């Protein structure tokens, strides 16, 4: 006997789980989530997949890489909380995808507010328009265009949201924000480490009112392309390395790094159950010259941090990935953090990463206040100075400073 799945029950179950996890907390965003059924933006997708905690791919490139999706429910919820959209607001969304997020925004700004959602592919715009019409949206318009250029004819906007990942600030949209406007932008710090920043003006610069760790499909086919290369590592196991344009890496030479003998270094840093890697990743993204890169996959002899793979530091033809080993003390089971290096500079790079992991643990760790960020573009960049000279990253168009005092 076939058991029928009730979409309404799955929809309410998703909302409840997001409230319980803390991803949804404001009454307005909760109400919007309850009003908009996610599965209606994924025609042909199984209900279980539509309401699962994960992204659902909707388009791939010729190489099979995902280039558009409907984001995981927790990601959608977190960014909408960051937006703090209000009734009557004018909003620009960059990255229409299925139209789901724009429809949620439309609920938040109704009845007088208006949402414009932009995408670079005509097929995505067409599908978003169809989904929006099917679900009764009356204040959302899907437009073909480059989100990095904004939508000057409709500016100024009270909020601008990017649901695609950026490697730098798309500067043209800053001038399209209203004086008290807010930009929500997922931007890579260095390498694969990315956060969704909610920026507001701070005199001649910008400051964060919120930042959350998350990663999006990179921007493409526009003025602010974020070029990502997935390097297939030589040998078995399907291990890959994610590399971005700003990282000083020899793509061909590093393919064979894992064929070199491993160099293993363990620190005294212990992670107990519930410990987060979020702030360690942020610290390493700033202090390591090439930040950290995702290295998904596994093979015999590798000891990655997680089932999906590990984060790795890169240097020319060398990589050093994070690992761990399990042990127990009077506080219970813990994981001791280590580093495994491969390549011509394996010893030096593994030692460097291990030293920085120890320094982070001694000076910051997972305690104390969360860091905040400041950003500036153009001629004001040089006026933005960090309290710690290591906590500044200069990009082509912007400077990103983290204010993060030592806690011990």
How is this structure best described in words?
There is one protein chain. The chain has 408 residues and is an alpha+beta fold. Helices cover 23% and strands 33% of the residues. It has helices at 7-21, 27-35, 47-50, 73-83, 100-109, 122-134, 251-254, 278-287, 346-363, and strands at 56-60, 66-70, 90-94, 114-119, 140-144, 157-162, 177-190, 193-202, 205-213, 228-232, 240-244, 263-272, 293-296, 309-315, 318-329, 332-342, 372-377, 392-394, 398-403. The strands form four sheets. It has a ten-stranded mixed sheet with strand order 5-4-3-6-7-8-9-17-19-18. It has a five-stranded antiparallel sheet with strand order 12-16-15-14-13. The model has no long low-confidence stretch (mean pLDDT 93).
């Amino acid at each position: 006997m076939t058991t029928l799945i009730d979409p309404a029950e799955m929809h309410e179950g998703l909302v409840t789980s997001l409230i319980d996890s803390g991803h949804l907390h404001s009454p307005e965003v909760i109400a919007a989530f309850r009003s908009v059924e996610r599965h209606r933006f994924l025609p042909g997708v199984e209900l279980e997949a539509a309401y699962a905690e994960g992204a659902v791919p909707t388009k791939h490139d010729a190489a099979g890489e995902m280039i558009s999706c409907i984001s995981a429910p927790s990601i959608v919820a977190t960014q909408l909380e960051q937006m703090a959209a209000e009734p009557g607001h004018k909003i620009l969304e960059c990255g229409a995808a299925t139209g789901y997020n724009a429809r949620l925004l439309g609920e938040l700004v109704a009845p007088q507010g208006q949402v414009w959602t932009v995408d670079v592919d005509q097929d995505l715009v067409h599908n978003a328009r169809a989904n929006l019409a099917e679900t009764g949206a009356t204040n959302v318009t899907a437009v073909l265009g480059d989100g990095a250029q904004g939508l000057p004819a409709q500016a100024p906007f009270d909020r601008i949201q990017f649901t695609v990942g950026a490697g730098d600030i798309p500067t043209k949209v800053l001038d399209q924000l209203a004086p008290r406007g807010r930009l929500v932008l997922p931007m890579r710090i260095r390498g694969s480490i990315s956060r969704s920043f909610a920026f507001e003006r701070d005199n001649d610069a910008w400051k964060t009112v919120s930042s959350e760790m998350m990663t999006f499909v990179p921007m493409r086919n526009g003025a602010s392309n974020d070029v990502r290369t997935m390097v297939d590592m030589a040998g078995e196991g399907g291990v890959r390395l994610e590399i971005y344009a700003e990282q000083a890496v020899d793509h061909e030479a590093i393919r064979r790094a894992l064929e070199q003998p491993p160099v293993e270094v363990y620190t005294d840093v212990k992670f107990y159950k519930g410990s987060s890697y979020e702030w360690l990743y942020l610290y390493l993204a700033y202090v390591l010259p090439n930040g950290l890169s995702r290295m998904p996959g596994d093979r015999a002899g590798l000891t990655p941090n997680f089932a999906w793979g590990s984060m790795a530091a890169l240097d020319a033809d060398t990589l050093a990935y994070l690992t761990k080993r399990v042990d127990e003390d009077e506080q219970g089971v813990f994981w001791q953090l280590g580093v495994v290096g491969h390549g011509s500079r394996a010893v030096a790079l593994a030692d460097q990463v291990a030293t920085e992991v120890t320094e982070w643990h001694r000076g910051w760790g997972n305690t104390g206040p969360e860091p905040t960020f400041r950003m500036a573009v153009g001629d004001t960049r040089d006026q933005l100075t960090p309290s710690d000279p290591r906590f500044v990253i200069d990009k082509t168009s912007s400077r990103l400073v983290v204010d993060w005092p030592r806690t011990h």
